[in-house]
Recover the amino acids of this structure.
């Protein structure tokens, strides 16, 4: 029976080459070997492999020469590079050249098996248990980089809405980097959708079936960072009443997304760097480190190069994280995508509210949005559309529903100019009491006031949404949207 995976091992040291071969054969792989770049290239001319494992230093060149040839010819093989201990520059260079992952000498055979299995999309099995059965999709893994994901349009990529050249470039880059293990840094302003990019990288990769763990580095108190990232053992400190896994352990086999990485304090940056380099973590209170297999994707709205220059971010960590950078463009740079994004957001709002059809933007409203600068990017657009949906009485959103000035001077003239649209009739309701102290968050406070009013109206009218809405001057559609936005879920008695 033909082995499901074929590998090529390239190393000029016979003893090491034999060790790698025996280790892989015990895992059920079909293994060929070579001692030089040219011998390896000859082997590659004779057949295709699932992966190539090469030492960095070879008699007639180095592993990067082989990687670049494989990449230039668009060959399907995943590539793994073995570098000398502590040679971080070579490791980063290999990842930039297209390597799936790298190992450092002396090679830990357990880690060696794990990295090879990860490159092939296999579950890691204890040695000598034989090969993992090959799924049909895995059997086609040697079909080449013109993969079916790109042709079929992966759902994760379709979530990144937009037909602009900038977004096409982002999606193409995601497809390419998803095949490897190289750390990715997603750069972009707040509200551009950096987490969507990270999730797409995970979902398109061979790690899609494993966990995706998202961490907001700026939201964790500094004194809790180590425990949250690496976990702890029972009794390690006061309150540690049981063993707890950290983010690295939770993401085992999958992807760890470090959002707002630029907010990490320097002390934690040092510990994170060690975890990435050693591929292992030591929980607080533990005596030994535990190996971890995670892919790191990080994101920031800051310019980390400036942060490094100012001494707020470690240069060595920056180099580790910034192997591949994906820039998420702000909304003002892709206005052509505005209509598609707005339609997708409105469809989601309608689905969440359980109404159909989804409202649409009038031409005038669409033109007004196109003139807006969107300093808050896609997140701001979503908030504007949520507001508009709750205010509009029909299926068509008009400019006045958006709450934006019609032009640069509109806000200044607002007190003098009459309203162009007649006010909608609203039944009188009691004004909310002004709080003794100003609220810390006006939006949250007003949402709570609105929620209380809606709940009281529903209770008064025996949970009949039509009657409750009418008592407040709202249509049934407006009532549904407001209830969905505020999370009001009540048992429905009587008809609407």
């Amino acid at each position: 029976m033909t082995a499901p995976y074929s590998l090529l091992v390239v190393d000029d040291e016979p003893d090491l080459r034999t060790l790698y071969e025996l280790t892989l054969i015990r895992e059920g792989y079909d293994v060929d070997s070579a001692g030089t770049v040219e011998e390896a290239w000859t082997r590659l001319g004779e057949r295709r492999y699932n992966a190539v494992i090469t030492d960095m230093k070879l008699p007639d060149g180095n592993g990067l020469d082989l990687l670049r040839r494989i990449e230039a010819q668009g060959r399907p093989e995943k590539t793994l590079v073995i570098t000398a201990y502590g040679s971080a520059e070579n490791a980063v260079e290999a990842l930039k050249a297209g390597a799936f992952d790298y190992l450092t000498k002396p090679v830990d055979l357990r880690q060696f098996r794990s990295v090879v299995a990860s490159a092939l999309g296999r579950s890691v099995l204890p040695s000598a248990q034989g090969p993992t059965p090959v799924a049909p999709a895995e059997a086609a893994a040697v079909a080449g980089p013109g993969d079916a994901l790109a042709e079929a349009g992966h759902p994760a990529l379709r979530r990144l809405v937009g037909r602009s050249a900038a977004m096409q470039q982002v999606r193409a880059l995601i497809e390419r980097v998803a095949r490897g293990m190289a750390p990715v840094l997603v750069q972009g302003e707040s509200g551009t959708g950096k987490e969507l990019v990270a999730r797409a990288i995970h979902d398109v990769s061979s790690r899609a079936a494993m966990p995706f763990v998202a961490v907001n580095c700026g939201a964790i108190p500094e004194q809790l960072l180590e425990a949250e990232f690496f976990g702890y053992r029972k009794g390690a400190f006061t309150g540690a009443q049981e063993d707890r896994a950290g983010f690295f352990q939770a993401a085992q086999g999958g992807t760890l997304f470090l959002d707002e990485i630029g907010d990490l304090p320097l002390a934690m940056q040092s510990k994170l760097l060690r975890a990435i380099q050693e591929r292992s973590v030591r929980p607080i209170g533990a005596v030994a480190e535990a190996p971890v297999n995670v892919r790191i994707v990080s994101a920031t709205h800051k310019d980390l190069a400036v942060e490094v220059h100012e001494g707020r971010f470690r240069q060595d960590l920056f180099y580790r994280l910034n192997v591949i950078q994906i820039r998420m463009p702000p909304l003002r740079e892709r206005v052509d995508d505005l209509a598609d994004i707005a339609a997708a957001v409105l469809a989601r709002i309608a689905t969440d509210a359980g109404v159909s059809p989804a409202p649409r933007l009038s031409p005038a409203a669409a033109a007004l949005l196109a003139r807006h600068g969107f300093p808050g990017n896609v997140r701001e657009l979503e908030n504007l559309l949520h507001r508009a949906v709750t205010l509009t009485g029909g299926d068509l959103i008009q400019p006045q529903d958006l709450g934006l000035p019609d032009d640069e001077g509109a806000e200044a003239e607002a007190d003098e100019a009459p309203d162009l649209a007649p006010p909608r009739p609203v039944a009188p309701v009691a004004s909310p009491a002004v709080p003794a102290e100003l609220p810390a968050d006006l939006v949250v406070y007003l949402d709570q006031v609105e929620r209380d009013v809606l709940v009281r109206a529903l209770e008064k009218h025996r949970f009949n949404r039509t009657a409750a809405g009418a008592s407040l001057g709202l249509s049934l559609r407006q009532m549904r949207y407001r209830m969905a936005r505020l999370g009001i879920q009540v048992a429905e008695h009587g008809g609407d």
Summary: The radius of gyration is 28 Å. The chain has four domains: 6-143, 148-329, 335-418, 432-496. Residues 124-152, 408-429 have pLDDT under 50 and may be disordered. The first strand starts at residue 6 and ends at 10.
